[in-house]
Amino acid sequence: MLSLQDGLVVVVPMGFDRGRIPNLLQKKKRWLANASQRIEAQRKFSESEPPLPERMALQGIGEDWTIEYRQKKSSRVTVVERPGYRLLVSGNTDNIETCRATLRRWLSRKAHVKLKPWLASLAKERGFQFGRVIVRSQRTRWGSCSRRKNVGLNMKLLFMPEALVRQVLIHELCHTVHLNRSQKFWALLKHHEPDCAKKEKELRSAGRFVPAWIDAKKRRGRDGRSWK
C-alpha cells in the first residue's frame, strides 16, 4: 500500500515467497505510478495544513467536529466535548505534539464507543462470532483478526466513508471463519458484500481520508516546542 507518511509499503503474508515481489510490483507499475501522483498531491496539501486541526470530519460515523483551542497556564492539555459537535482543547496549547496526542486519545475513545457496537451488530446480523475487539492506530492495516477470533480495528477508520468502514468490519468478520485469503474466504466475503471487489480496491487508497497530523512525526523547533 501507499501512504502519505510511509510511501510504498509491501505487506505480504507469512511464508510468502519474497522473490515474487519485484514481478508483482512490475505488474502493478501503472497503478503505483498513479497512486504516487495522488500521494504527492496529498503531501503538497498537507504541507499547507495548520499544525493543529480546526475540524475533524469523521465520515465513518457521520460526525463533523469543529475544534477550539484555549491557552491556559497548565502543563496538561485536556479535551472536552461541547454541544453541536464542538471540541474544546485547553491547557498548554503551544505544545503542538501534546495537543495532537490528546486528540489521538479522544479519537481512540470515540473509536471504541462507535466501532465495537457496530462490529457486534454486524456479527449478530450475519451470524458471526468473535472474541475481543482491540482498537489501535496502525499505519498500514485497517483491521486484523487473530486465531482466537480477536478483531483489531484501526481508529483511523473513523475518517473513512461509511461504506468502506463497513467493508473492513465485514472483511474481518469473514476472517473469523477463514483466517486466510483463500477462495473460500473471498466467496464468503462476496456473499455478504456483493460489491466487495470494488470496495477492496478503494481501500488501497483510503489513506487519503486520514489527515496528515495523525501520524506526523515529532520534531523540535528552536524554541523546544514540538511541531510537524
Number of strands: 11
User: Looking at the structure, what is the overall shape?
Assistant: globular
How do the strands line up in the largest sheet?
3-4-6-5
If classified by CATH, what would the architecture of the largest domain be? 2-Layer Sandwich
Question: N-to-C terminal Cα separation, in Å?
Answer: 23 Å
Helix content: 25-40%
Largest sheet: 4 strands, mixed
CATH class of the largest domain: Alpha Beta
Q: Write down the oligomeric state.
A: single chain
Protein structure class = alpha+beta
Question: Please, how many domains?
Answer: 2
Would you tell me which CATH topology of the largest domain applies? Zincin-like
Mean pLDDT: 86
Q: Estimate the strand proportion.
A: 15-25%
Radius of gyration: 19 Å
Secondary-structure element order, N to C: EEHHEEEEHEEEHHHEE
Low-confidence stretches: 218-228
CATH superfamily of the largest domain: Metalloproteases ("zincins"), catalytic domain
Number of helices: 6
